[in-house]
Amino acid sequence: MKKILYIFAVLFLSQQAFAADLSGDIKQGAIVFGKTISGTEVLFDGKLLKVAKDGRFVFGFGRDAKAKSELIEKLPNGKELKTKLSVAKRNWKIQKINGLPAKHVTPDEKELKRIYAELALIKDVRKINSKNPYFTKGFIQPAEGVITGIFGSQRILNGKPRSPHSGVDIAAPTGTPVKAASDGVISLVHEDMFYTGKTIMIDHGHMLETIYIHMSKINVKKGDIVNQGDIIGYVGSTGRSTGAHLHWGISWGNVKLDPQTTLNFN
Ligand SMILES: [Zn+2]
């Protein structure tokens, strides 16, 4: 009996000497899922992360993330663990799109006012930091179709450079079902945004939000709880769009991440 207790004690202590388990690539644009000992405080580049009761947490690297990051874990026993992360650089594509209506490329003053008001709504949702870790379910691609645009591409619209593409474009016929990429709570429903048309956001907890845009029809309302795979709406071409497709994005706070890095964790 004494020996068994001793082994348990050694296992317990040795477990506490190891840093969190991280799943995901340490590279620009990537999401990273972590698991540490319950009750641990985790800091990513000095920023305190939410840690679920079972020790799970999430963070991510922006498109232009710097080469070095640091994760600090303050264990319940007072021990502090530091993990240095070397963030791999990615080569982003240049994407040229021509033939957009001029008014969508250079909005007038009235349209700019509308655009800023709509962006403010989205920004407010990205500030939500709810504690329910819905994201631990993992993520699926929300619509079937052909990937026609990837995260991080620098877009040149009618010859004018714009901000990098913030999500993935999935081309599919109008009416193709759009599914919730993971469990969560509907945090935004908008029927007509200037750029994004019919727009939905889902809060997956710990500052993770997915966004679904250009839809033809919306099936849900704000506050609805959805399960991964639930049909939340249908593919369309509303807002600034050149054809039927789903633009799917994911953000961690105000950091936009590459949705394709969220797949294949199950
Ligand atoms: Zn897009």
Task: Please describe the structure with a list of short key phrases separated by commas or semicolons.
3 helices; Immunoglobulin-like; 266 residues
Give a brief outline of the structure.
With 266 residues, the protein is mainly beta. The chain contains three helices and 21 strands.
How is this structure best described in words?
It is a single chain. The protein has 266 residues and is mostly beta strands. The protein has two domains: 2-86, Immunoglobulin-like, CATH 2.60.40; 94-262, Glucose Permease (Domain IIA) (Distorted Sandwich). Helix content is 14%, strand content 38%. It contains three helices and 21 strands. The protein has helices at 2-15, 102-105, 109-126; strands at 21-23, 31-35, 41-44, 47-49, 56-60, 68-74, 80-86, 94-97, 146-149, 154-157, 160-161, 167-171, 177-179, 184-193, 197-203, 208-215, 217-218, 225-226, 231-234, 245-252, 255-257. Strands 9, 12, 14, 15, 16, 18, 20 and 21 form an eight-stranded antiparallel β-sheet that branches. The chain has a four-stranded antiparallel β-sheet with strand order 4-3-6-7, with no helix packed on it. A three-stranded antiparallel β-sheet has the order 1-2-5, with no helix packed on it. The longest helix has 18 residues, at 109-126. The radius of gyration is 21 Å and the shape is globular. It starts with a helix and ends in a 9-residue tail after the last strand. 34% of the residues are buried. Zinc ion binds at residues 149, 165, 167, 169, 247.
